[in-house]
């Protein structure tokens, strides 16, 4: 596969065209941002970890019957993925209270829910990714009812799998954000990434944070935390 011109540069990844019109290459950077781009920094080695972890999880999820964008890992930082149009919806699942949920509803972090919650936000940096419900998403033509139903079905399956997988390596999956895309032939697939940038991961015993909150909240040992997740997942 030939890597051609850069199509797009986002906050954490670059995307390149290839000689196959249905495949693009994502190239993961070490750049980190938070609070809608207000806070900027670097997490050394993050790109490699996020690339490998995301690919590891996507391949496991494929085996569980979840269609994903994954095609082939090309290098430590580069992966070939199906070219998709991203649904402009961020899908957030929570198993334990934290972050904006704790803030909005005035509760402490760490409350374990009986059942996972799901919420959507409109993927739009200029507006600060506002929360919306399914009716809003349909009204704005961000997705159809059928697409939303499929997204919800996949999302809860993804949560069940990720939660139990993380538990097996001593990590509580607190919450995460995923994105879906539509392929040229209209299939809805899991896209973007699954990584410590997009998941809250707490050690099950010490409750130590092993994710991007260490960067957001200037807690230190950010690189160590990402590395620790990688070590537990893949022995690296
Ligand atoms: N998240 C993300 N990208 C975003 C917003 C949230 O990956 O633009 C992830 C975040 O890492 C966490 C989950 O989604 O795992 C829930 O985030 P929350 O709504 O609590 O927002 P935050 O407190 O991160 O602003």
Describe the protein in words.
The chain is an alpha+beta fold. The chain has 2 domains: 3-82, Phosphorylase Kinase, domain 1 (2-Layer Sandwich); 85-234, ATP-grasp fold, B domain (D-amino Acid Aminotransferase, Chain A, domain 1). It has 6 helices and 14 strands. A hairpin with an 8-residue loop joins strand 10 and strand 11. The chain is globular and about 50 Å long. The mean pLDDT is 98. The chain binds uridine-5'-diphosphate (UDP). Uridine-5'-diphosphate binds next to strand 9, helix 2, strand 12 and strand 14.
Concise structural overview:
The protein is α+β, with helices and mostly antiparallel strands. It has six helices and 14 strands.
Summarize the SSE layout with pairings.
Elements: E1 3-9, E2 13-18, E3 23-28, E4 31-34, E5 39-42, H1 46-63, E6 70-73, E7 78-82, E8 84-86, E9 89-96, H2 99-105, E10 112-122, E11 131-132, H3 134-139, H4 145-168, E12 171-183, E13 188-191, E14 199-203, H5 213-216, H6 222-234
Antiparallel strand pairs: 1-2, 2-3, 3-7, 4-5, 6-7, 8-12, 9-10, 9-12, 10-11, 12-13, 12-14
Helix pairs in contact: 1-6
Bound molecules: uridine-5'-diphosphate.
Q: Tell me the Rg in angstroms.
A: 17 Å
Note the overall shape: globular
- What is the assembly state of the chains in this entry? single chain
Count of alpha/pi helices:
6
Helix/strand-derived category reads alpha+beta
CATH architecture of the largest domain: 2-Layer Sandwich
Extended strand count: 14
Output the CATH class name of the largest domain: Alpha Beta
């Amino acid at each position: 596969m030939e890597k051609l011109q850069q199509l797009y540069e986002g906050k954490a990844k670059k995307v390149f065209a290839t000689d196959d019109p249905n495949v693009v290459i994502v190239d993961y950077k070490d750049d980190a941002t938070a609070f809608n781009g207000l806070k900027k920094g670097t997490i050394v080695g993050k790109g490699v970890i996020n690339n490998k972890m995301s690919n590891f999880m996507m391949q496991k999820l494929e085996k569980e019957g979840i269609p994903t964008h994954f095609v082939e890992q090309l290098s430590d930082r580069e992966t070939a993925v199906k070219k998709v149009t991203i649904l402009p919806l961020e899908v957030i699942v929570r198993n334990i209270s934290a972050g904006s949920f704790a803030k909005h509803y005035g509760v402490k972090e760490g409350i374990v829910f009986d059942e996972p919650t799901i919420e959507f936000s409109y993927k739009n940096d200029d507006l600060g990714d506002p929360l919306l419900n399914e009716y809003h998403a349909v009204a704005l033509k961000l997705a159809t009812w059928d697409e939303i139903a499929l997204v919800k079905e996949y999302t809860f399956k993804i949560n069940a799998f990720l939660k139990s997988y993380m538990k097996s390596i001593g990590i509580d999956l607190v919450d995460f954000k995923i994105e879906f895309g539509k392929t040229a032939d209209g299939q809805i697939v899991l896209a973007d990434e699954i990584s410590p940038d997009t998941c809250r991961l707490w050690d099950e015993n010490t409750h130590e944070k092993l994710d991007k909150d260490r960067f957001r909240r200037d807690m230190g040992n950010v690189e160590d935390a990402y590395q620790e997740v990688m070590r537990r997942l893949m022995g690296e």
